[in-house]
Design goal:
Elements (H helix, E strand, L loop, with lengths): L1 E5 L4 H17 L4 E6 L5 H7 L3 E4 L11 H15 L2 H13 L3 E4 L6 H9 L4 E5 L6 H6 L5 E4 L14 E3 L13 H7 L7 E6 L6 H14 L6 E6 L2 H13 L8 E4 L5 H7 L2 E4 L3 H10 L3 E3 L9 H11 L3 E3 L9 H10 L2 H11 L7 H13 L5
Parallel strand pairs: 1-2, 1-4, 2-3, 4-5, 5-6, 6-7, 8-9, 8-11, 9-10, 11-12, 12-13
Helix pairs in contact: 3-4, 4-5, 7-10, 8-9, 8-13
């Protein structure tokens, strides 16, 4: 079996693709798996680390505006995808790799290769992790053989003719596989030490990062038995380092700044509390790990879907919801201080997060891959 996976730009698109690749390798040792992405995206970093071949296409996103500059940009995007020499390179990738199936996970990197594969009659499938389908998924919905969704209501937002199946989010095998004590030991944490894990996504989130630094500055001296770790994102790492040092955190033994966490299953296994954005893949991981969280949804996403994601967790008692505009004035510091002093509430939040672990997406996705590549009805 030869499988081509595509989707990228951010870890939110790449991680489900990597989870599907892992699933394929686990079930078919002889399968050949390769990826298609864009240069400069997070796939540049994550895909080669896992040993997969990475092809590149030239693509750009569609801007949701009628301003002249946006119209020009969108015409350029369509030209790149359909008529430019880069479109011919997309066809060349299909000629060279000869996939039995092409699977996309969203993002503008995926739709040129998915559309080209569909035109050739190559089996195609898409996974949409968010409740609101992205533009690439909406553009491809009538072309592909299967759309897998995470949320129940997503199918209602797609064309009735689209072949939609709710499966949940595919997660990599490490989530839930590492005993908590083992994870703490591997990270150098004592049995009674707590870990607050803070991350704003693969590209970073400057307002959240700065609020976390302020909270650490205030709380690190008070909570000596708590380790604070902030993954800033590679884009913000250098600039935030100056803020970090100015706050005196470089001298704080219980505070750590990194650009990106590659072994998230290990860190989540050891964590007692997470501070993060509210992307759908992140929430599925929090659910799988039964990890309490403070969620600060990004306001810069289509249809404000991260706020809706976070509100679902908060309404269930699994998270504290703070909007980005509320970060000023020490709100994050106060919430973290209260949670660190209330073990009973953390336990309650952990139990409330567990039902969000979702279904066994991998089993259904693998069955569909087999059926699609054998040209069966699914």
């Amino acid at each position: 079996m030869r499988v081509l996976l595509t989707g990228g730009g951010t870890a939110g698109h790449i991680n489900p693709a990597l989870a599907i690749a892992e699933l394929i390798r686990r079930n078919s040792a002889g399968a050949e798996v390769a990826f298609v992405g864009i240069r400069g995206g997070k796939e540049d970093d994550l895909v080669p680390r896992e040993g997969y071949r990475l092809y590149y296409v030239k693509s750009k996103g569609i801007r949701r505006s009628l301003r002249p500059s946006a119209v020009v940009s969108n015409v350029q995007a369509l030209w790149l995808a359909a008529w430019s020499p880069y479109a011919r390179s997309t066809r060349a990738i299909l000629d060279e790799f000869r996939p039995d199936i092409v699977i996309g996970t969203g993002g503008y990197a995926c739709w040129p290769i998915m559309a080209a594969a569909a035109r050739r009659g190559i089996p195609t499938a898409l996974h949409e992790s968010n409740a609101l389908p992205g533009l690439a998924v909406r553009k491809l919905q009538k072309k592909v053989d299967r759309i897998w969704t995470n949320f129940e209501g997503t199918a209602d937002l797609l064309d009735p003719a689209a072949r939609v199946k709710r499966v949940g989010n595919p997660l990599r095998g490490g989530f839930g596989a590492i005993p908590r004590g083992t994870a703490k030991e591997r990270l150098g944490l004592g049995p009674s030490e707590k870990l607050v894990l803070c991350f704003g996504g693969s590209l970073g989130a400057e307002p959240l990062n700065r609020a976390v630094v302020e909270a650490m500055r205030a709380l690190a001296p008070k909570w000596g038995n708590v380790r604070f770790c902030l993954a800033s994102g590679k884009r913000d790492y250098a600039a935030l380092g100056e803020v970090w040092c100015a706050a005196g955190l470089d001298a704080a033994s219980n505070c750590t700044l990194v650009d990106y966490i590659y072994d998230m299953p290990l860190w989540m296994s050891a964590a007692d509390l997470a501070v993060t954005r509210a992307g759908a893949m992140t929430l599925s991981e929090l659910g799988r790990m039964s990890l309490p969280s403070v969620l600060v949804p990004s306001p810069h996403v289509a249809d404000n879907h991260q706020y809706l994601n976070a509100k679902t967790f908060a309404d269930a008692g699994a998270a504290v919801l703070i909007e980005e505009k509320e970060l000023e004035g020490g709100r994050l510091t106060a919430e973290l201080d209260a949670l660190l002093g209330d073990d009973a509430r953390l336990l309650s939040m952990s139990r409330a997060a567990a039902p969000f672990a979702g279904t066994d997406a991998g089993k259904v996705i693998w069955e569909d891959i087999l059926a699609l590549t054998e040209k069966k009805e699914v």
